[in-house]
Design goal:
Layout (H helix, E strand, L loop, with lengths): L11 E5 L6 H11 L10 E5 L5 H8 L5 E4 L16 H6 L4 E4 L2 H7 L3 H13 L3 E6 L3 H5 L3 H12 L5 H5 L2 E4 L13 H19 L1 H6 L1 E4 L5 H8 L6 E4 L6 H12 L1
Parallel strand pairs: 1-2, 1-8, 2-3, 3-4, 4-5, 5-6, 6-7
Length: 259
């Protein structure tokens, strides 16, 4: 399924399990989840388990349309980086996607935009599709700095990438104040952020790249709010945290995107 098409953007819904799901839990999830989305053809579905469950999840997904993602990676192919995972390791496990720049990585592990850019460059070099997370915190939002923060993140994160590479990218607009708080951006706020991101891409890389780019919304997405959020014209899917741990709830979100 090609995602680089100047006329049609394939919706993408990704589950970020964070530091949840043991091997047995991941396998049980997939066993329960697969039948719930078997008929979904118009939406790309991605699961991002923790590193320890990648192989087991990939095996459980065999024969399905569901794709595998990692939650992070190092930019180097190998080396003295204790505790890190390289792009070739992820490819060997069957990963097609990798989440980069999540606000938790930025805030809790000190990952800056220059490092995220190195990871993006490496992901492209190894044919991994990046899901790049950007977004503002509550203080920045209340100060009216949302667009300034997004522009700054995009400017450094995407430095050196070509328009063709940008067209294959997924950007997740995740207002930090809405992640894991139960507080969700309004559909209008989510659309405004997504529209601004697409506008920035158009200005920097041209209209074709901007139209091909898929923009997700992330931040307390649930079955009850998914349909209205995902109906916004510049939102092409969701990056889902807590609700993705329940196969029934995550399947409902997927189906809201597919309608």
């Amino acid at each position: 399924m090609s995602c680089y098409n100047e006329f049609v953007r394939v919706p993408i819904v990704a589950a970020n399990w964070k530091m949840h799901q043991t091997l047995a839990q991941a396998q049980n999830f997939v066993e329960r989840f697969r039948p719930l989305v078997r008929g979904v053809k118009s939406t790309e579905i991605v699961l991002a388990p923790p590193f320890t469950a990648l192989a087991a999840t990939q095996e459980a997904l065999r024969g399905s349309q569901i794709r595998l993602a990692a939650q992070n990676m190092h930019y180097a192919e190998q080396g003295a980086y204790t505790g890190e995972i390289s792009p070739p390791m992820l490819c060997e496990l069957g990963c097609e996607y990798v989440i980069l720049g999540h606000s938790e990585r930025r805030a809790q592990f000190g990952e800056g935009d220059a490092l995220i850019n190195r990871k993006l460059q490496s992901a492209y070099a190894h044919e991994l599709i990046s899901i790049l997370c950007v977004g503002e915190n509550l203080d920045q939002r209340e100060a009216g700095e949302t667009e300034q923060i997004l522009a700054r993140q995009l400017d450094t994160d995407l430095e050196g990438l070509s328009a063709e590479q940008i067209g294959r990218l997924v950007i997740a607009y995740e207002p930090i104040w809405a992640i894991g708080t139960g507080r969700t951006a309004s559909p209008q706020d989510a659309q405004a952020g997504a529209r601004f991101i697409r506008g920035q891409i158009a200005a920097r890389y041209g209209g074709r790249a901007a139209q091909a780019l898929r923009v997700q919304y992330g931040g307390s997405v649930k079955p009850g709010n998914a349909a209205v959020l995902l109906a916004q014209p510049d939102i092409d899917g969701a990056l889902v945290g807590g609700a993705s741990l329940d196969p029934q709830e995550f399947a409902q979100i997927v189906r809201a995107t597919a309608t």
